[in-house]
Structure prediction request, 300 residues.
Amino acid sequence: MSSDTERPEDSTPSDTADAESGAAQTRAAGAETAADNGATNSGPGGTEAAAADNAGAKPDADDTEAAGSESRDTGTGTEAQGAAADSTGEDTGTGAEATADSGSTLAGAAAGAERNDDSGDAPKYSPALIATAVALPVALIVAVLLIAVVSRQDTVREPLALGSVPAPAAGGPACAALLPALPDSLGDYTKAELAQPAPPATVAWQLPDGGEPIVLRCGLDRPLEFDKASALQVINGVNWFEVRDRTSGVTSGTWFVVDRGTYIAVTVADSAGPTPLQDISDTLTETLPARPIDPGPVPN
Prediction:
């Protein structure tokens, strides 16, 4: 009996050691399995729960859920931070692009302003071109003036043909004294050449380009229209009597000198003005003495 009882006691420590060794190996294998499961299950809270179950230490359910919740919150926060970072990056990129576009716009505006300033500058011409532009109008004006002067000089007046009128005293001393003393010009009118045969004691003046002449005839008979009722006009001390056809609308008249001992007729256009008669009157005053007038009788 005693020997049977002691055999179990002798074998107990060995069995106990073997049991403990097996338990240790079991725990080690469980730990390795838990580690492998933790590496495989990367979800929130999955690693901690598998390790706790395999190790034989059952954690509190609330702690496990809290740990999972914190892990999920951490993951969510990480995702939010990533999204915020992406959003910030996109905003930053968009702002940079907008800034670059604005810079390009400003640079283009500045370049356009410079081009406008350059195009707004007055064009620069060479001194030779400016001198030519100034000289051409002057040369043109000078040419026109020269042509005008030459044209006037080249105008050749034809000899003036005049008809004859009765002049019984044309060869008398009064006409002989007067004709050489007459001026060469009367205002703009100059002495004209007479076509031959020319009437005796006759002088004419004409404008440079021709036209109606001023004609003086000396030694004429007393005009029929001159009578005691005739109206006279005194010009520079000389008595003049005008004969004009008022009904024909002519624009010239014939004036007779009636106080110089011989009758002198001057036919002049109205457009010539008073100068011709004034100049001739001055010559008559200097050349021929005044005489009493001798009008004809008043007709019945």
